[in-house]
Amino acid sequence: MNNRGEFSSRLGFVLAAAGSAVGLGNIWGFPTQVASNGGAAFVLVYIVLAFMLAYPVLMAELIIGRATRSNMVDALGKISGNALGKVTGVWGFITVSLILSFYALVAGWMLSHFFQTITDLFGQETWSTWLVTSSLTRDIVFCGLFLCLTAAIVTGGVAKGIEKWSVRLMPALFIIIGLLIVYVSTLEGASKGWSAYLLPDFSLIMDPGLLISAMGQAFFSMSLGVGTMLVYGSYVNKKENLPTLGASVALVDIAVAILAGMLIIPAMYVALHNGIEIFNEAGTLIEGPNLIFAVLPSLFHSMGQIGVYVAFVFFALMMIAALTSSISMLEVPVAYVVENKGLSRKSAVWGLTLIVFISSSIIAFNMQSLFGLVIDLTTKYSQPLLGFMLCIYAGWVWKRNEILKEIKQGYENAEQGLFWKVWPWYVKFVCPVIILLMFIL
Fold first, then answer.
1. Where are the alpha helices (DSSP H) in 69-204?
2. What's its membrane topology (predicted)?
3. Would 307 be classed as within a structural domain?
4. What span, in angstroms and rounded, lies between the C-alpha atoms of 262 and 268?
5. Would you call 279 helix, strand, or coil by DSSP?
6. 326-382 pLDDT, tens per residue?
7. Distance between CA 52 and CA 68 in Å, rounded?
8. Residue 277 and residue 127: Cα distance in Å, rounded?
9. For the chain, how big is the Rg over CA atoms in Å?
10. Distance of CA 358 to the CA centre of its chain
C-alpha cells in the first residue's frame, strides 16, 4: 500500500472540496436558472434543497472516504464486503473519466478564448480569429493543453499539488468575481439584471418545474456521486469534525453560485442594453456555451478597448473554475491506480491523462453524435444513480455503529448532536426516494 497523502489544514480541504464542486456549470447554469425561475425565490429553494439533498449525500461520501482511507473502488468494496461494491466503484471511475473527457473540451474552449484576449491586446487578428473559430485542430490542441495543466497539479499529490493550488486558485476566483461584479454593476442596464436576479416571485415557489430545477442544481453543483468527495474525504485528518467540514464545503459552493449570478445576470442585461440578444426562441435567457462563447464575448466587444481587459479577467475566472473541478476528477482514477496497481503517482497521472485525452479526441472527431450523448449519459443518468447507490451503502449496507465510531473521531459528542439524530434515517429513507424521483422526472 502506498503512503497516502493528507490535507494539511482544514482550510486547504474546504477550498479544494469547494473547488471541486465549483465548476463551469455553476457559473453559466445557476445564474440563468435563477433569472428564469422566480429570481430570489429560486435561490431560497436552492439553498434549502442543497442542505436537504446534497449535504446528506456529501456527508455519506466524506464519511465513507475517511473511514476506509481508500479510493472509491476499494472503499465501497470494504463497506459492502462483496464484489458489487467494487463494481459500483469502477462504475464511478468510468463515469468521472468520461465527464472529464467532455469537460476538458469545454475547458479547452475557455483556454482558447483566454489566449484570444492576449492576441487581441497585441493586435494579432489572424491568431484571434483562429482561436475563437471552431475547428478540430483548435479543440484538440487546447483540450490537450488543459489536461496537461490539470495533470501537472495532480502530479504534486494532495498537500503539494491539489491543496497548494486550491488555496491559491479559490481566493483568486472570489477576488476576480468580486471585481467583475463591481465593474459590471456600474454599466447601463445592470440594474435591470439585479432586479431579475434578486426580486423574488414567490408565486413560482411551489412550481414543479422550479423545484425539479433547484433539486437538480443542488445535487450536481456539489459534484456528488462520482467519488470526488469520497476520495477527498479519504485525505482528511481523523481529528476533523466531519459534519462541520461538510457544511463549510456546501456553504462555499452555494456562495460561489450566488456570486456567479450577481455577475452573469447583470452582465446579460448590460448586453441587452447594448443591443445584444439574450433571450432564445422560447423566450428564456440563453445559458450554457452560447452564453459564454456568444453573448458575453459580444458584450465585451461592445465595450470598446476596456472590453479586451474585462474579457481577459473573465476567461481567467472561467479557467480557474474549470481547473479546480478537473483536478478532483482526475484524482478519482489516479487514487485507484496508485493504490491498486502499484504505479508511481507520476506514471498514473500522465498515463490516465493520455487515456482521457484519447477519449476527448474521439468525442471531438464525432462532436455531433457523441458530445451531447456523453453529457446526458454521465450527468443525467449515471451521476444520480451513483448518488442513489451511495445512499444505499451509507444507509442500508454499512453498520450504523461503524459510521458513528468514525464520526466520533473528530466529534466526541456526535450522538447528542442534531446531525446524528437526523442524518442516518434521512440518508436511508429520504435521499434515495428524492434522487429516484429526480431521475424519473
1. 72-80, 83-121, 125-132, 136-155, 164-185, 190-198
2. Multi-pass membrane protein
3. yes
4. 11
5. strand
6. 999 999 999 999 998 889 999 999 999 999 999 999 999 999 999 999 988 988 888
7. 25
8. 27
9. 21
10. 22
- Whether 353 is covered by a domain: the verdict is yes
Q: Considering its fold, how many domains does the chain have in total?
A: 1
Written as nine digits, the cell of 441 is: 422526472
The whole-number pLDDT of residue 2 equals 47
Cα 216 from Cα 34, distance rounded (Å)? 13
List Cα–Cα distances, 281 to 26, 148, 189, 278, 298, in angstroms.
Answer: 23, 39, 22, 10, 19
- What is the rounded (10 degree) CA torsion for 47, 51, 54, 56? 180
Q: Which three cell numbers stand for residue 399?
A: 453498520
Provide the grid cell at 296. 458575453
pLDDT, mean of residues 180-190: 95
All three cell numbers of 282: 422560447
The answer to whether residue 101 is domain-embedded is yes
CB distance 324 to 173 below 8 Å = yes
How many whole angstroms separate alpha carbon 283 and alpha carbon 286? 9
Write the CATH number for 18: 1.20.1740.10
Domain that holds residue 67: 10-440
- Domain assignment present for residue 1? The answer is no
User: pTM, whole model, 2 decimals?
Assistant: 0.91
Nearest to 323 by CA among 173, 176, 198: 173
Strands (DSSP E) contained in 212-317 are: none
